[in-house]
């Protein structure tokens, strides 16, 4: 009991922690997603800006191409004006091959493109070229982006975008979230703002997002530090926390209620046994061949001290779940033994007892049954143990041996509610059986005396082939009786013959009606408690 209470505490604790753990998991995933979306949005904005800037640069190149590069002396002033009044550009100019003929920054001073961008031009010089560079001759520390186009005669124009515009824009976007933002044109110099320190975080890693333009050779990459994901997670988690706390309390209340009911059922069953709240009803079984009562099935009843009856399927299921079915069945055997003493029954009277799977598999099973058989031996009853299909599934070999042992001592075995379990039919050959009780669901399906009920017919045929006695359960109408009789079913049980009744009522019933043949029409013994 102490162990059980300790386990209950653990279950309660687990119920309280579950929403919290799930919340941590859920908010962790949500925070990662939010952070990833944020990175994507930032990258898209930077990419848009870079594309706009490139559009501007090519417009500028197009504008410059209208000038005759051979007339640099005349147009120099124009070029200077264009270069200085248009935003973004560090310098613009006209070229012939590698030579800069005139530029907004240097006028007509001789120079080369390679000298200006401080790196070699690709060979052959491409017709159209974009490249980010670390610095230029006039501003070696400040990155820039070159947009250059050359005509077939070797004449060309260039626009050099000042990288500071990009740096300022990227900084303004990335700084509030401590992002490292970089942009690279045509695999050239990486223009970068922000710095991610190499920090090791237990749960979060740095997130990286990279995107490229469909129109220009430009790549944006953004890295967010683990601390940002942690910040996002903290935010989501704090929003979720009140809900998690409410869910935790709710779960704990539900589980505690359930545990209380479980504990109380266990205690109540134990108390019920101690207070003699259980009794047994017996439902007579009719033997068609001898046209008289063949025996009875014992059915346990529970009336609480407050007078309330508990349904057998409810308390049997609870007893099975609460490991109380063995003490309860042992109590049932004691009650039956006391009842049987009051009966005046012929030798060979059948007494069927329901046995639960757990009891069957328990080491005390054989001795319990033997002890019961010894107690009622003077009545020379045929004890029939009713087992469900389910109880034969586990530990089959051991169970088969126990049943075979008891059969050698005169005890018979019946399969109850046949056809409702979902185990394989192979057990019909593995176990030594005597009776097969057809579930009342199949009997209910009989619609007329000559009608077809294929499953029921198959069950009956199978029983005959295996030389098993067949009993129809829940027979309520003369038509069902007729049908079963016509198909060779020799035992029937149901309201048509008799309802379950108390031990005293049975003793009385046996004297007055037990030897009478069953006449058609519903049994009117409705006064007996069910
Ligand atoms: N509609 C209808 N019902 C009929 C008719 N004839 C009999 N019955 C009911 O069908 C059930 C037959 O018992 P079961 O199949 O062993 O099914 C039993 C059995 O599985 C379990 N049970 C009852 N007593 C015990 C017991 O002492 N030990 C164990 N392990 N289980 C028991 O509880 C189940 C329900 O028992 P009960 O409520 O007593 O319900 C009984 C009985 O009252 C009929 O013509 N029509």
For this entry, give a set of tags.
single chain, alpha/beta, TIM Barrel, eight-stranded mixed barrel, six-stranded antiparallel sheet
Molecular structure report:
- With 530 residues, this protein is an alpha/beta fold.
- It has a domain of 238 residues: TIM Barrel, CATH 3.20.20.450.
- An 8-stranded mixed barrel has the order 11-12-14-15-16-17-18-19, surrounded by 4 helices.
- Helix 11 links the parallel strand 16 and strand 17.
- Helix 1 runs antiparallel to helix 4 and helix 9 runs parallel beside helix 10.
- The longest helix has 63 residues.
- The radius of gyration is 46 Å and the shape is rod-shaped.
- The two termini are 34 Å apart.
- The C terminus is likely disordered.
- The structure holds ligand C2E.
- The site of ligand C2E has 21 residues, from strand 12, helix 6 and strand 16.
- Ligand C2E binds next to strand 12, helix 6 and strand 16.
- Its EC number is 3.1.4.52.
Distance between the termini: 34 Å
By CATH, the topology of the domain at 275-512 is TIM Barrel
**DSSP strand count:** 20
Largest sheet: 8 strands, mixed, barrel
Strand percent estimate: 15-25%
Overall CATH class of the domain at 275-512: Alpha Beta
Provide the low-confidence segments as ranges: 521-530
Helix content: 40-55%
CATH architecture of the domain at 275-512: Alpha-Beta Barrel
Radius of gyration: 46 Å
Structural class: alpha/beta
Strand order of the largest sheet: 11-12-14-15-16-17-18-19
The CATH superfamily of the domain at 275-512 is identified as: EAL domain
How large is the count of helical segments? 15
Mean pLDDT: 90
What binds here, in terms of ligands, is: ligand C2E
Principal-axis shape equals: rod-shaped
